[in-house]
């Protein structure tokens, strides 16, 4: 279903080959971000299995207290995800609905510890909590920012510097980076965030702090979207 919808959008684009090549990567990523939230779209993962508890935060580098959504009673477990679905860390902090057969028993030895499953991205149960921020190894010349506890993934982040919005680059470990050699001015840091459903919001981070998880001064959150599935 997802691949079909992506292909339909690509076919409806301009017939100009140069324009098609330049836009394809962005369009495919946009469609993957949104398609994974469609109610009829479950991604077949072939198999799921258990793994040992790791307190190091995994590839997403969740140091300190877990985001509010991760501790909600609706969240059954924390999971590690396959590389194809990791989407270069875009899915860090995402909430997933897993479809499988409850109550089934497999006595075959070759099936021990492996279960056929499929998944669907859903809106996280953030309640009344807001988006949070964590810095890693940052200073005015180098910003590495983690955006945590969003209802749905953040797909674009800009930082305000000298009255201009500058695009940050997503890292492989769930952060957003600005390292263009220009220093940030003193004071709170303004950010503009775009969610996977296209919602745009602005917030202000009080300071660069590499030791603590910070609340935004505007207390923003992606609003509940009735068109998307929920946990």
From TrEMBL:
The keyword Signal applies. PANTHER family: PTHR31836, SRCR DOMAIN-CONTAINING PROTEIN-RELATED. It comes from the Eukaryota. InterPro entries: Expansin_CBD_sf, Expansin_CellWall, RlpA-like_sf. It comes from Biomphalaria glabrata (Bloodfluke planorb). Keywords: Signal. The keyword Signal applies. The gene is 106059618. This is Expansin-like EG45 domain-containing protein.
């Amino acid at each position: 279903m997802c691949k079909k919808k992506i292909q339909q959008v690509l076919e409806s684009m301009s017939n100009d080959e140069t324009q098609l090549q330049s836009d394809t990567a962005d369009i495919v990523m946009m469609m993957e971000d949104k398609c994974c939230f469609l109610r009829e779209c479950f991604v077949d993962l072939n198999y799921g299995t258990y793994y040992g508890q790791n307190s190091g935060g995994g590839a997403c580098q969740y140091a300190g207290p877990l985001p509010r959504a991760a501790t909600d009673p609706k969240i059954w477990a924390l999971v590690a995800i396959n590389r194809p679905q990791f989407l270069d860390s875009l899915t860090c902090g995402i909430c997933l609905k897993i479809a499988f057969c409850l109550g089934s028993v497999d006595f075959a030895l070759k099936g021990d510890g492996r279960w056929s499953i499929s998944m669907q991205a859903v809106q996280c149960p953030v309640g009344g909590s807001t988006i949070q921020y964590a810095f890693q190894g940052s200073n005015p010349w180098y910003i590495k920012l983690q955006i945590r506890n969003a209802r749905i993934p953040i797909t674009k982040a800009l930082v305000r510097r000298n009255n201009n919005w500058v695009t940050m680059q997503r890292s492989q470990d769930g952060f957003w980076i600005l390292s263009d050699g220009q220093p940030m001015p003193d004071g709170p840091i303004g950010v503009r965030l775009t969610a996977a459903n296209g919602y745009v919001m602005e917030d202000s981070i009080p300071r660069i702090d590499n030791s603590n998880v910070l609340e935004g001064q505007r207390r923003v959150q992606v609003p509940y979207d009735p068109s998307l599935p929920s946990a």
